[in-house]
Amino acid sequence: MYKHNKKLIATSFLAVCATLFISNPIALEAKTSDGNKLDAYLKFTRVLNLIESQYVDELNTTTLIDKALKGLLSNLDAHSAYMDAKAFKDLNIQTKGEFGGLGIVVGMKKGALTVIAPIDDTPAKKAGIKAGDIILKIDNKSTLGMTIDEAVKLMRGKPKTKITLTIVRKGKNKPLKIDIIRDIIKIESVKHKVIYLDKDKKEKVIYIKIASFDSKVVDGVKYILQQYPKAKGIILDLRNNPGGLLNQATGLLDLFIDKGVLVSQKGRVKRENIVYKAHEKGTNKDIPIVTLVNGGSASASEIVSGALQDHHRAPIIGEKTFGKGSVQIVVPIGKEDGVKLTVARYYLPSGRTIQNKGVTPDITVYPGEVPKKKANEFQIKEAELKKHLEDELAKVDNNKTEVKKDTNTTTSDNNSTNSKVITQDEIYKDAQLKSAYDILKVLILQKGK
Question: HEC states along 65-118?
């Protein structure tokens, strides 16, 4: 009985395979000489027949194949996935710059649904979601065993509706429940401010914050550079930047690197082996740059920061990045469904990979405030101590407990109405930014020698 069924199953399956080979050019590249391949196909078919005939609930072949494909793709890696009709239709929503949801980018890290980064000025950011948070539950549904696409589908919804995320956060003894109100997500990908280097405000550096690599990044940065042709340096902030379009990452690098490899991708299929190189025309190769990254910097932001580091073009300050450096393609496999498949990995100019490794900063600085009082604590020579104390005593006798000039300067700085300027007080509230600013000043001095 089994031999007869085996022959029948094999004949049917080979007929299906032949049809696939004719209709799908990719299938022609498959190696057909492997003797174990037929046995593997037969094993799959036997299990399929067993489920159809004896499983407690009646399931048709189409449903079973869909479930098998979802399991197959999700077990390859965190980014490959089978997409049913709805998922396939919604695939490009995130790249359009406006969508309903939370403003949160997630990925799989060690099998856990992890926040890569909350996007600035979105419900997730305002609610207190942080890069590195592990999402344990979405409303009442556990995320264990859930794919990224399934999680994203649950988190999206009608604007002004509530969703509750249960998260595990490093340093917290128990999970946190965070309520978030969904909204239309509008991403302003590029923002900038200036930081003055002197009291006369004649010399400045540009602070450029890139929230994500959408289609407007390169043009946005070009416009900023045109507005400040005499800027002494750039602080490029890629913290909590989850990535985006590769051509925008390479285009941004091309503004500051004049020759050599920017990034390369390598896969099994020859057509996926691509090298992206810099062009000399239009390159500003002299302006000093410092890059800021953290655990929420992923994909395109890792390509940019890593390439600038490899070319010795910009030191990296902050924390180790997320480690997402793979290439996915989307292949339709029917009229309404498709497959998202990892076909290559990105490699930085030095040849190192990003995937699961990330980019390590040149100087590791953790977030927090700089103790400004200690940093500005006066140093006084012993010979001047008596005179200094006499002056301080005179102030007390005259009921003067503070210097008015300094107070006015500080108040004016704090209450500045110019939202395009980062004040010294704001710099001291961000230890990573303060480190980047200090290092940039050193680079500027070295360049002037």
Answer: HHHHHHHHHHCCCCCCEEECHHHHHCCCHHHHCEEEECCEEEEEECCEEEEEEE
Calculate the CA 341 to chain-centre distance: 19
Catalytic choice (125, 310, 430, 434): 310
Distance CA 446, CA 315 (A): 14
Q: Is 299 tagged catalytic?
A: yes
- pTM comes to 0.72
H or E element at residue 22:
helix 2-23
Task: Give the CATH number of domain 98-186; options: 1.10.287.3510, 3.30.540.10, 2.30.42.10, 2.60.120.10.
Answer: 2.30.42.10
273 phi and psi, to 5 degrees? -90, 100
- Catalytic residue, from 299, 301, 305, 326: name it: 299
Give residue limits of the domains in the chain: 2-59, 98-186, 190-364, 380-428
Is domain 190-364 annotated with CATH 3.40.30.120? no
- Residue 200 catalytic? no
**Which entry of 324, 340, 430, 435 is annotated as an active-site residue?**
324
Residue in 256, 281, 342 with CA at minimum distance from that of residue 76? 342
Query: pLDDT per residue over 143-179, tens digit each?
Result: 998 888 789 889 988 889 999 999 999 889 999 999 9
Query: Does the active-site annotation cover 447?
Result: no
> What are residue 347's DSSP bridge partners?
264, 353
Q: How close are the terminal C-alpha atoms of the chain, in Å?
A: 88
CA distance 113 to 345: 21
